Fold:
Amino acid sequence: MANIMPRKKKPTPKTSKVIVRDLPTPERGQHDHLEFEETPKAGVYRIRVTTQTMLDRYVQRKNITEVAHQAGEQFATAWHNAAKGQRVISSYAERTDGHADSDNPRIINATREVQKAIDVLNQTGPELSGVVIHVCGMDGSAGDWARSNNRPRYEGLVVLRLALNVLARHFKLTTLHQVQ
Structure:
């Protein structure tokens, strides 16, 4: 038998490999703005989606201003707080200690939040409140709102800008001429 020498392995070049954790799905990368950020562990990065809502996407695309975005976010907060609703199961407080549920601070706060959202919608008026609810409250696109109201798709963004101007004035974020 011949003496067979084992092959020498070629040294592999050492490269610094970036470890990426918390990857979003590939579809998110097609439609959203992604940012790499470093984690507390050295050399480990994660990808963060910065456009979570339609308002975020409109700001990133420069379709609306930052002030309009703030106004939409304030309405979205009021809308979601109002939509939390009351408990499904009633309280036994009335039966055990004689107090009615209407004295409950949770119910009073929920009623206040609903009234706050209604006041904002009354400020925008019936012509603009639909697009505000659709985009800010339900996170739909302005184009979808326009199509559902038998309007050309481009009108949705125009009406949204007008509605966000009214919201910015209502929330006293700026004067009208500063919002585009």
User: Anything to note?
Assistant: The mean pLDDT is 78. The helical segments are 26-31, 54-60, 66-83, 93-97, 105-124, 126-137, 142-148, 153-170. DSSP finds eight helices and three strands in the chain.
